[in-house]
Amino acid sequence: MITQAATSSFHHQLLWKASRVKKEREYTVGKLDGKIVIITGGAKGQGAAEVRLATKLGAQVIVTDILDDEGQSLADETGNTYVNLDVTSPEQWSNVAQKTIKKFGRIDGLVNNAGIDQQDHEGVIDCSPELFRKIVEVNHVGTFLGMSAVAPSMVAQQAGSIVNISSVAGMRGYTAIAYVSSKWAVRGMTKTAASELGKSNIRVNSIHPGAIETDMLFDLGEDSINRLVSKVPMKRSGTPDEVGEAVMFLLSDESSYISGAEITVDGALITR
Description:
alpha/beta, Rossmann fold, 13% strand
């Protein structure tokens, strides 16, 4: 892992590239006034960006994470509610759903954002069963448990939107077999859930980010990041807000006939 001091200058270079095309603007991509949205992994990074965007658009957000200090701080900052959640625990998922219903009376949206990376990119030969199971438990099983926890409430109200965060790694093959497997699984589950829940007016879609400026990218190190970004046709990395805006659109009624879709936010990386 590279230190904050070592990455500071490099980080600013990435942000400068993004700033050439991303100006300060009004957030009009989806209106979430009055919607109740659960966001997992919401304490920092991509999840925190989604929390802030959803709040700006009028949603009440249930911020969930295992990072209690960061999660509570963000909830206090944005005027939302924080609940501790280990996404691999069915009991904790049930607790989040029950607390949300008790406080707000409904669940309009779920963003399954929580996930972990496979930093050393082990393949079939080198990946241990323990590591494989750990990553699959969080990325795959955690997403399944989230959908299972909120679906009954959404069916009862005959409305809802679930957004599952996958990855471009869920659309092609890479060496990190556990991570890639988990993200392909999220993609498949999304389509299955969309088919099952569509009759109840519940939409389920997946987002597939590419090289996005979060810790997951910066942990790769400068050389690896440069190699990855060089493959992006748009010749830059993306920002958490750029992924977040796609998520907001799918949570909103502006995407009312979109379900079972997979949206890449990757600067066309997947085309290479």
